[in-house]
Design goal:
Layout (H helix, E strand, L loop, with lengths): L2 H11 L3 E3 L8 H8 L5 E3 L8 E4 L5 H8 L6 H10 L5 E2 L11 E3 L20 E2 L3 E6 L3 E6 L2 E3 L4 E4 L5 H8 L4 E7 L3 H7 L9 H9 L5 E4 L6 E3 L4 E14 L2 E2 L5 E2 L2 E13 L4 E4 L5 H8 L3 H9 L4 E6 L8 E6 L6 H12 L5 E6 L7 H11 L6 E8 L13 E8 L28
Parallel strand pairs: 1-2, 3-18, 4-12, 20-21, 21-23
Antiparallel strand pairs: 2-3, 5-17, 6-9, 7-8, 7-11, 9-10, 10-17, 11-14, 12-13, 14-17, 15-16, 19-20, 22-23
Helix pairs in contact: 4-7, 4-9, 6-7, 9-10
Length: 439
């Protein structure tokens, strides 16, 4: 389902907050999005811009599941299936220009796009929902999220980690033609945030996740890169050897990331839909956390599934959707909890706390998880601790030099345990009634 199509559906269902008052992209809009975190918002009138802006669009599991046409309980396993069995996207074959190329801006001026300045200490206006598409002769296409700080009319400094895009750049002599897409559907965004082997086309994951045929690509106007034809905006250009300070920027942890020297993306052409809608992904807020954390859940599920019967996984928003996780298992052996802890850390190396619960506990329900810890866990018997391990660069409490951190696993499973009469511990079940009859 296209980005704008989903917004239309949310409008019809009454879930979309429609802001008709003129709002500024400089600090004001981010304040509104934060105040309405978890609720999709459409800004109809943007100060100094002809384009509308939407945010908080995929800020809950329920919203993401709705956009993908599935129940939230199906998300993890369907994402895992898409990762394991991607399907190559098709080519756009519609009459005339592809939707993302209805308007072509040869005279690039990024100030015409409503790019937000989110917080007072930000290094500048930031594109935070942009997915960068690049091609390597040997490895094919790569799609990955990279935040971009605007530093001029046609220049953006990108945060590029030492992963696949960086490898593509090095293999091409330090520079690379790319395209950045803004206003993508949920399946493409989730795929762009996955961690897969180099050479796997993330758009194949998106096509499998959204339903075969859900992704159609079109070749860019000025670079030899194919991108989703239903993108709202496409920024075409070249990542150059020029370095520039990038940051400060608010990351997943809701704390400021450090300033680094990063490469500059020179934008040479912009194409967009006639009535393009800019996707503002608020840093550190729920949409940022959902988009970045959820794609790690299938990798945890896969690893835990190798050692025991895995039921569900949740990377928790309270843990910055990166550092804490909860795994539900169908416990069949007393050692399954410990095995699941070790496997979960293998599935997501940046995680530093994981809680293992029984399958009757919803991992995305903090109260249920805390109940399991309160009633099924003994610290002295079911805790796994490691003092010094490689952690995440996003962890503000990690060793600033080595990035090492302490890791803790909690086995809060109890269904394999027996009470004094030999009965398995379980939650009481109350009678089910239709409460509408009593109101």
């Amino acid at each position: 389902m296209e980005f704008r199509e989903f917004l239309g559906q949310l409008g019809k269902s009454g879930e979309l907050v429609d802001v008709k008052k003129e709002v500024s992209t400089n600090l004001e809009m981010s304040g509104v999005l934060k105040a309405l975190d978890g609720r999709p918002v459409l800004f109809e009138k943007v100060k100094g811009s002809q384009f509308r802006v939407a945010g908080n669009v995929f800020s809950t599991r329920e919203l993401i599941a709705k956009a993908l046409g599935m129940r939230k309980e199906e998300l993890v396993q369907k994402m895992l299936k898409a990762v394991e069995k991607p399907v190559a996207p098709g080519k756009y074959a519609g009459a005339g220009s592809a939707p993302c190329q209805e308007v072509v801006m040869d005279d690039v001026d990024l100030s015409k796009i409503p790019i937000l300045t989110h917080c007072e200490k930000d290094g500048g206006p930031y594109i935070s929902s942009g997915v960068v598409f690049a091609v390597d002769k040997e490895h094919g296409r790569n799609c990955s999220f990279h935040r971009g700080m605007v530093i001029g009319k046609n220049r953006i400094v990108l945060r590029i980690l030492p992963r696949h895009l960086n490898e593509f750049i090095k293999r091409n002599g330090g520079e690379l033609d790319v395209a950045m897409c803004i206003g993508l559907p949920a399946n493409a965004l989730l795929a762009g945030a996955t961690s897969v082997e180099i050479g796997v086309d993330e758009l194949g994951i998106a096509n499998a996740l959204g339903g075969i045929g859900s992704v159609k690509t079109v070749k860019c106007k000025s670079v030899d890169v194919e991108v989703p034809a239903d993108s709202e905006f496409v920024l075409e250009g070249r990542i150059t050897k020029e370095l520039h300070a990038e940051g400060p920027f608010v990351d997943l942890t809701e704390t400021y990331d450090i300033v680094r020297e990063q490469q500059v993306f020179e934008v040479r052409k912009i194409t967009h839909r006639k009535d393009a809608i800019y996707h503002a992904l608020l840093p550190g807020a729920l949409e940022h956390k959902m988009m970045m954390g959820m794609p790690r859940e299938p990798t945890i599920f896969r690893e835990v599934g190798k050692v025991c019967d895995c039921a569900d996984v949740c990377i928790t928003p309270g843990g910055c959707s990166w550092l804490h996780g909860v795994v539900a298992i169908r416990k069949k052996d007393a050692a399954d909890g410990r095995k699941a802890i070790d496997a979960a850390f293998r599935g997501h190396h940046s995680m530093k706390h994981v809680v293992i619960v029984d399958a009757d506990i919803d991992p995305s329900d903090p109260a249920a998880v805390e109940w399991a810890i309160a009633t099924r866990f003994q610290f002295s018997e079911a805790t796994v601790m490691s003092k010094r391990e490689a952690g995440s660069s996003l962890d503000p409490s990690a060793d600033p030099k080595t990035r090492e951190t302490s890791k803790v696993g909690i086995d809060a499973t109890g269904q394999a345990k027996k009470d004094g009469e030999g009965k398995a511990f379980g939650r009481a079940e109350f009678p089910k009634v239709d409460v509408s009859k009593y109101l």
